[in-house]
Design a protein that fits this description.
With 257 residues, this protein is α/β, with parallel strands linked by helices. It is 19% helix and 28% strand. The chain has a domain at 22-123 and 205-254: Class I glutamine amidotransferase (GATase) domain (Rossmann fold). It is built from six helices and 15 strands. The protein starts with 21 loop residues before the first strand and ends with a helix.
Length: 257
């Protein structure tokens, strides 16, 4: 999950760019505007839509997202966008919550997701320093939003929504907010980048390393910074907020034929 951002769409650009028009999937999860701004800076046409025919006709599709997995999946299912997304044949890029929803299941709200990637999405568990202290009724906020915390402690929600408190290493806070390095590149998304480049991330949940991992990062433990399966690509971080590194990743996606 991630910080909720204003969801006002930009006008479609009339400029000619690196590729044909890109559809940005409209659903009840934010950061649409920041993705459109990033594409606009690259001179690329984009439009925001939840229309099946428009998405199917697009040259490429971006599936962004910040928010909570459960209501996001509910919105997709109510409009049959869940079935549409998994059937797409053109290149698709998931961003942040988009990556998590492209996995098979998320601990956030015990949510069944799209199942494109064979990964479970789990809540970060900071290293425990001393014995846990039982508390109740204090949830972690939506993806990227900080829930109630105390100095030296983190309040965590498990798979079944059970709340608990652990004394933790204060160097690790949930959510992860800020810059972190990515490495072990195995995808065209990272062409032209050096190992250990820095990107910007805001999230409380992560996909573990697996057979579809194409970039790795480390926060508390190593996890998937990016996943790829056939025409489906996804990144846990925000390329639209990651400066020149993020621009390179978006250009590489746009250039996929």
């Amino acid at each position: 999950m991630s910080h909720s951002l204003h969801n006002t769409a930009l006008p479609v650009s009339s400029s000619e760019g690196l590729a044909g028009r890109i559809a940005i999937v409209k659903y009840n999860a934010g950061n649409v505007q920041s993705v459109q701004y990033a594409l606009q800076r690259l001179g690329v046409d984009s439009f925001v839509t939840d229309d099946e025919e428009e998405i199917k006709a697009a040259d490429k599709v971006i599936f962004p997202g910040v928010g909570h997995a459960a209501p996001a999946m509910q919105y997709l299912r109510e409009r049959a966008l869940d079935k549409l997304i998994v059937s797409l044949q053109q290149p698709v890029l998931g961003i942040c919550l988009g990556l998590q929803l492209m996995c098979k299941h998320s601990e956030e709200g015990d949510t069944k997701c799209l199942g494109i990637f064979d990964e479970e999405v789990k809540l970060f568990m900071p290293p425990v320093g001393t014995a846990g202290l039982a508390v109740s009724g204090v949830p972690v906020g939506t993806e990227g939003q900080t829930g109630s915390t105390q100095t030296g402690a983190a309040l965590l929600v498990g798979t079944a929504g059970q709340t608990r408190s652990t004394r933790t290493n204060p160097a690790f806070k949930v959510p992860q907010i800020g810059w972190n390095s990515i490495y072990n590149f195995k995808s065209v998304l990272f062409n032209g980048l050096m190992e250990a480049e820095f990107v910007y991330a805001v999230h409380s949940y992560y996909a573990a390393l697996g057979k579809e991992t194409v970039a790795t990062t480390n926060y508390i433990q190593p996890y998937s910074a990016a996943l790829q399966k056939n025409n489906f690509y996804a990144v846990q971080f925000h390329p639209e907020k990651s400066g020149l590194v993020g621009e390179t990743i978006l250009k590489n996606f746009i250039s996929i034929s």
